[in-house]
Amino acid sequence: MASPSASWLLAPIRAPRALPPLPGAMEDALTRAGTCGMKAATATRGPASAPNAGESPDRKRKSSASAPGATTNPFTLAKRASSTPSNVTKPANAPLPAGDYAVEPSSHPGSVVRYEPRAFPCAPDDYAEIWAFSDRVARTRNPLNANTFIKRKQATFGARYKFGAQVSARVEEPPEAWPRLVSACVDDALGRVRDAKRDAFAAGVAAHVNWYPDASAGMGRHADAEEDLIPDAPIFSYSFASGGDASPPRLFDLYRGRGAKKPFATVPLSHGDVLTMDGTTQRTHEHGVRASASKEGMRHSRVNITVRAFKPGSDAMR
């Protein structure tokens, strides 16, 4: 593992425990259980050979909602749900204990994650505001089928982010006009970077936002290792859901590099959770968000805000 002096984090990861592997990590991805015994719902996923190429069409639910020009839009239903978040609060018993984890300590000791459940508060009004912003965001065409769109929407505040076959356009608004939740996550991320590295991180900081209308929208496997990103700088991921603590978690899958066919570990991400990927994680592993057809998951929208540091002067920052 990288020495504390080499870390970008104000509170460096020093002695991480091993991330629990999935029980029977080579089981069928459609029926396997989660890392900590959570029951996984049925998932659909794009081809493993096309990391981050977008979600594959749901074979069972042949809706026209993802076709260009279709009148039914999954974001319409999600908008209604986001405007009336649930007041029911579930006990904050995280399936995975908070703490620092080595992704695979024996083979890749420098690849580490920090899991902080319920660490970032989000008021219902702040969620409603950022969800309403998605009305101004164009849908992204599916790189695997130009006649359809991926289910989630995406935009980047502070940069033009190109990854895989997709390009997330820069939000052309000054920071003072950004949704409150975006600005708060950027400020929080900067506060997690140690003084000696904070200026470098701030010079290229950007927030990539994904809007998931329901649990059927996932994120294809990928690594955040684009040329425009500062290598090995920490990446901070903030998760929020329309039902608050009552929303079911989404499963964040980890893969052993590009050759792995199935995930070997999972981190459950709930409302208010913060996940930090540090060290060499992006060079050694891929990750994705599992899609689900669970009835409960289909009732809740989700917003993820990922704060990254781009190289100043790179194409992303121009």
Describe, in short, the structure shown.
It is built from five helices and 16 strands. It has 318 residues and is an alpha+beta fold.
Radius of gyration: 18 Å
Order of helices and strands: EHEEHEEEEEHHEEEEEEHEE
Task: Label the overall shape.
Answer: globular
Q: What share of the residues does DSSP label as strand, in percent?
A: 25-35%
Distance between the termini: 34 Å
User: What is the third-level CATH name, the topology?
Assistant: Jelly Rolls
Strand order of the largest sheet: 1-2-3-14-11-16-9-6
CATH superfamily: Alpha-ketoglutarate-dependent dioxygenase AlkB-like
Low-confidence stretches: 26-74, 80-93
Q: Give the number of DSSP strands.
A: 16
CATH class: Mainly Beta
Total number of helices = 5
How many domains, in number, for the residues?
1
What CATH architecture do you see?
Answer: Sandwich
Structural class: alpha+beta
What does this structure look like?
Residues 64-90 have a biased composition (Polar residues). The protein has 318 residues and is an alpha+beta fold. It has a single domain (21-56, 74-317), classed as Jelly Rolls (Sandwich), CATH 2.60.120.590. It has five helices and 16 strands. Helix 1 links the parallel strand 1 and strand 2.
Question: Descriptors for this entry?
Answer:
5 helices, Jelly Rolls, 14% helix, four-stranded antiparallel sheet, eight-stranded mixed sheet, globular, alpha+beta, 318 residues
